[in-house]
Amino acid sequence: MHFREVLDNVASTAPGARRNDAMSHENWKEAVDVFTKHEYRLCEHFYRSTEHLYEVISSKTGNRNVQITGAALAAITAHQPVFTSVSRVGPFSYGSGHIIAVFGDAEPLAPHNQQNALAILNSAIKINQVEANMCSLSAGDEKYRAEVYLTKDYTLKNFTGLGYSLMWLERAKLGDAACVAID
Fold first, then answer.
1. 119 lies in a domain?
2. Number of domains in the chain
3. What is the pTM of this model?
4. Range of the domain at 97
5. 159: which of 43, 93, 97, 136 lies 20 to 30 Å off by Cα?
6. Any domain includes 14
7. Cα gap 50→36, rounded to integer Å
8. Span 129-180, pLDDT tens digits
């Protein structure tokens, strides 16, 4: 079973508003738990400043200067890939938000109010004005592709009252508390 199928199953049985939002972060957390047979959990921390968010991305991925190595090498050398939510990447807008994988940071500390370039995997791209999510396509479908690239052209999603989301996988341990924090 593909992750997207598990995510859709989780959403279909989720309580309340989560049922109408397959991509909610709570549904993602539950789907990761089910998909990995309780071996991993999806941790989520919120950061009120982009400076702190970028520092943590650099620290977790271990890739602080991906403008030198490039996005593809960053993807295979990241110590720990992370995920964040965006509402836009390049010309593609994602209404309620979209989760992208991040493999590194191209500029260790951008000046205040400027975005760092990130090495990302975008799995939901639009071709000929049709949105396609690579997670939900059948094997062998060659109309769409995911892309790993370096970009400064994105809009981070700011969750009202919480800040910017950063997520990563951790091995689950029996009795672990929820892995959510706000800095």
1. yes
2. 1
3. 0.82
4. 47-168
5. 136
6. no
7. 31
8. 554 444 544 544 454 457 888 999 999 999 999 999 999 999 987 666 667 6
